[in-house]
Amino acid sequence: MSKTVLLSSIYINPATQKAPFTTVSLPTTSFPRFLPLLPTPCKNDSTGQSPQPHRPLIFCATGAAMIFYFQYEKARLERQRIVEMSKGYGKPKVGGPFTLKDTNGNEFTEKDLLGKYTLIYFGFSHCPDICPDELDKMAEAIDIIQARAPNVLRSIFVSCDPARDTPSVLKSYLSEFHPSLIGLSGTWEQTKHICKQYRVYFSTPPDVKPNEEDYLVDHSIYFYVMDPEGDFVECIGRQDTPESAAGIVLQHVRDWKREGKKIDETPLPYLSQVQGVVGTPA
Amino acid sequence: MVWPFSSSAQNTSTNPNSSGPKSRDGGFIAPDRSAREKCYESRDRLFDCLDRNDILDAVKEDEKSRRVCKGENGVYERDCAKAWIKYFKEKRVMEYNRDRTIERIKEDDARMVAKQKAEKKGRGLFG
Fold it and tell me: For binding Cu cation, which residues are annotated in this chain's numbering (chain A) (predicted)?
């Protein structure tokens, strides 16, 4: 129905040869100011031929440029909307204070997230296939991000299995995926607390006995992207590839920098350790 | 009965159902990449056998699958952690059902699109 309205309003009365754009029913609020200066698209005189043959070409080129511009702006505004949802009044309460231990046994809190973008994945080391797949994906994404925007990202794996995943277990488990992965674990209460803060579902009962039974932990399968101020930005799900996941983070980093905000770009400790290992003989 | 766990890990658990060898700080060591790969291969060999014998749900048809794919089942249960054994069998059924549902949705969509096209053609360009 709307197509009909549009087409009838663009039709030109050859006798009057008026510009059509004055009658087109398009939203005017979001259109750029240069719209009235566009050439008229179709002027049919009695022979059916356009009097100025290059006009349609200019129109098409301008139209294409407009389409690209709108798509770019739409994507940028969409990202801005996502980011702004995490700031100010009514921001989603994902994230918050927590206390866990890293793989060296040192305390790690939400304050240690500040300064860089963070990718957080919740899982457990006895996971059959999903966590290994997601961690491989995360490792690839980390490499892509490190190559294009060095030292802006911190990568964290939080265990939802406090009874089995101790710091030393996580250290050897995560070493097979990526040297930058920071593994965090804690008591059942601490784990329950961070899962609650991050709205992560996890199913481990407090009194499970790993000595007597083998079990699996149900948990949400998302990467959480946090910004350098420790605020939640968005989730990246299973359907994303390493490239698209890296792309999402890199876009946010670019937007952040474009707004003149600071990112702490000091290299993470693992980089100097990797270089040290490379230097030593096998 | 002493289970032959590797001597490098301190294993104080002699329970075959337990979560595996213990680490130095009291945790339970998870299967590493090569152990996971080994489990995946044994699982795939078992599932090939089940496919050949038209068994979808190895949990419901446990007796039949053990009878028909005895060797593969034995290797699978040796190479995979206890909780994983049941998990992969259930996942097989879930994935099969999911794929059938997706196919059905695609067929329904295609039928609906064809129907709409036929209707549109009948009505002409301006509805």
Answer: 127, 131, 219
Q: Is residue B111 part of a domain?
A: no
Residues of A near B (Cβ–Cβ under 8 Å) read 1, 3-4, 125-126, 128-129, 132, 163-169, 172-173, 176, 210-216
Q: What is the ipTM of this complex?
A: 0.77
Per-residue pLDDT of chain A (282 residues), as tens digits, is 444 444 444 444 444 444 444 444 444 444 445 544 554 444 444 455 555 778 899 999 999 999 999 999 999 888 888 777 766 666 677 888 999 999 999 999 999 999 999 999 999 999 999 999 999 999 999 999 999 999 999 999 999 999 999 999 999 999 999 999 999 999 999 999 999 999 988 788 888 888 778 888 888 888 999 999 999 999 999 899 999 999 999 999 999 999 899 999 999 888 887 665 554 444
Chain A residue numbers with beta carbons less than 8 Å from the beta carbon of B126 are: 3-4
Domain count, chain B: 1
Look up the domain containing B70 and give its range.
35-101
Residue B109 included in any domain: no
SS3 of A200-268: CCECCCCCCCCCCCCCCCCECCCEEEECCCCCEEEEECCCCCHHHHHHHHHHHHHHHHHCCCCCCCCCC
Distance, CA of A144 to CA of A242 (rounded, Å):
8
Q: Any chain A CB within 8 A of the CB of B122?
A: no
List the domain range (segments joined by +) for residue A249.
102-278
A162, closest residue in chain B (CA to CA)? B27
